[in-house]
Design goal:
Elements: H1 5-11, E1 28-33, E2 36-45, E3 49-55, E4 66-72, E5 80-94, E6 97-106, H2 114-125
Antiparallel strand pairs: 1-2, 1-4, 2-3, 3-6, 4-5, 5-6
Length: 126
């Protein structure tokens, strides 16, 4: 039995601790891909990509679809606008409800604002 791209991505060993979506509860994401808009939350972010958590079960026809996103938070001086491509997605359950994790690889690396860097640094120190 073969694994979906999302399942494969979730199986990859990571060298740094995972950052919980709870750590990003103040960050709202509006992801647009495949002519659809997905409001959600930030699950994880780096200079090269992010994981978006959306309610419900979502799937796409193929990987590589162009996506753009806006990340908003009171912690940011202005919304963070991002362009990238969908690289994986996987269904999951959070607090007994269906959600989908969506992986987006940025077209070009971004410089993370200080508030997001601080979250990443605190996760490494814990």
């Amino acid at each position: 039995m073969s694994m979906s791209p999302g399942e494969q991505a979730l199986k990859i060993e990571r060298t740094l601790p995972r950052i919980s979506p709870r750590d990003f509860q103040d960050y709202a994401v509006q992801l647009r891909a495949d002519d659809r808009l997905f409001p959600g939350g930030l699950g994880n972010i780096s200079e090269n990509g992010m994981c978006v958590v959306v309610s419900g079960t979502v799937s796409f026809d193929r990987e590589g679809l162009l996506a753009d996103a806006s990340i908003r938070s009171a912690q940011l001086s202005a919304p963070l606008e991002i362009t990238g491509r969908l690289v994986w997605w996987a269904p999951t359950e959070i607090s007994g409800e269906a959600h989908t994790l969506i992986g987006v690889e940025f077209e070009t690396p971004i410089e993370l604002p200080a508030s997001l860097l601080a979250l990443g640094m605190s996760a490494v120190e814990d």
